[in-house]
């Protein structure tokens, strides 16, 4: 009986520890990615010929998908591609 209880408690501890670890990892990933994106996306958009206003719109639209991105006033395909590449790079740097 004691062996079963010990095994059960070990399993519960392992699952609880995993849940805590995943929560911490995702929190750190999200914060670092947002910080990197706030720097990389405006640089990329301005480098592709956009303005600071367009860069703000691109940064807000990127997490929402391509349809939202193409609705940003003044956006071009080059700006969208540059912003998208910077968004992906922010995840690469966050990991």
Summarize the structure.
This protein is mostly helical and 95 residues long.
List the helices and strands and how they pair.
Layout: H1 2-47, H2 52-61, H3 66-69, H4 77-94
Defining traits:
95 residues, mainly alpha, 0% strand, rod-shaped, transmembrane, transmembrane helix
Explain this structure to me?
With 95 residues, the chain is mostly helical. The chain has one domain (2-94). It has four helices and no strands. It has helices at 2-47, 52-61, 66-69, 77-94. The longest helix is centred in the first third of the chain and has 46 residues, at 2-47. It is rod-shaped, with a radius of gyration of 21 Å. Keywords: Membrane, Transmembrane, Transmembrane helix. The chain crosses the membrane at residues 12-32, 44-69, 75-94.
Distance between the termini: 44 Å
What is the structural class?
mainly alpha
Number of helices: 4
State Rg: 21 Å
Q: Name the beta content range.
A: under 5%
Unreliable spans are none
Shape, per Cα inertia axes = rod-shaped
Q: What number is the mean pLDDT?
A: 95
Structurally, how many domains make up the residues?
1
Beta strand count: 0
Helix content: over 70%
Order of helices and strands: HHHH
Largest sheet: none
